[in-house]
Fold this sequence. Notes:
Bound molecules: S-adenosyl-L-homocysteine, iron/sulfur cluster
Radius of gyration: 21 Å
Order of helices and strands: EHHHEEEEEEEHEHEHEHHHEHEHEH
Amino acid sequence: xxxxxxxxxxxxxxxxxxxxxxxxxxxxxxxxxxxxxxxxxxxxxxxxxxxxxxxxxxxxxxxxxxxxxxxxxxxxxxxxxxxxxxxxxxxxxxxxxxxxxxxxxxxxxxxxxxxxxxxxxxxxxxxxxxxxxxxxxxxxxxxxxxxxxxxxxxxxxxxxxxxxxxxxxxxxxxxxxxxxxxxxxxxxxxxxxxxxxxxxxxxxxxxxxxxxxxxxxxxxxxxxxxxxxxxxxxxxxxxxxxxxxxxxxxxxxxxxxxxxxxxxxxxxxxxxxxxxxxxxxxxxxxxxxxxxxxxxxxxxxxxxxxxxxxxxxxxxxxxxxxxxxxxxxxxxxxxxxxxxxxxxxxxxxxxxxxxxxxxxxx
Length: 362
Ligand code: SAH
Ligand code: SF4
């Protein structure tokens, strides 16, 4: 049995554990500060905790559940982290610098995209994450540790300031809302003032459209932002590329999104990947603009990132611009993101897929 992961332990539980050790509660709070705010790399750096106490803790808890397996990207560009989990599975996070107010607010400096599952069961036709099917849900600590490990990496690079990541997008590998309870447990800690302290409005959860869980998320108290992977504005087009649309067709999805909008007051983004010949027809723009207006949502157009083994391609830049302009004419708020990560497999699931294939071949 491996030891319990440290990062997902709640303040109250750690205080209780410290009481059993005969230590005062504030020592537990010091530990949380070292881990979540000062981003120390090991037990030894927690200098105000006595060595025998640190040894007891080290026997009880796993310091980190993720280990860096590969890092791609350099300078001030998008960087991709591939993590090895304790059972050998691989997941990835993507760090995007100075993203001008895509999901959060204008002060946004660094956005980190984290994974919630190993693989994905939803099988969208264009996506690398679903290609090898679903392996397992991530534990809360495995979600939290992606953030902490990036912060530690930044600190080791001599990064200035208390923290690097001030915006979190739950858009890496997996369907976040299919791992609802563990995701929300992780976000609770990433959001808590005594822990990582990332504001709820700086956290965006992306979903392919799990209607019951969108409603659950609307009913819980935190003000997380919601991104919906739409990728088609009619059932015919959406169903063709996203199997989930057969279970929850657009009318149901729109109603759940409206419930979310009503509860959280305008926190929705509609994600729309542009794939040549599949969903870039101008027949899609009237229903897409109509939905965006109804939900007071912003549309995020993303030119498709090609994936090894899949034949889809992005439309030409002029076709992208035409789609964008048509939406604007129909009264939608739109951004067209010619993203920075195209050259480093920045769409979710791609680095893992490539690495697993390389490992299989070697
Ligand atoms: N499962 C969730 C979150 C992870 S996918 C969801 O589907 O929303 C995060 C986003 O990346 C989704 O909008 C997804 O459709 C998009 N995506 C997947 N593959 C892509 C690719 N090859 N190019 C561009 N975006 C892609
Ligand atoms: Fe899963 Fe999202 Fe990829 Fe669809 S787009 S296969 S839901 S990760």
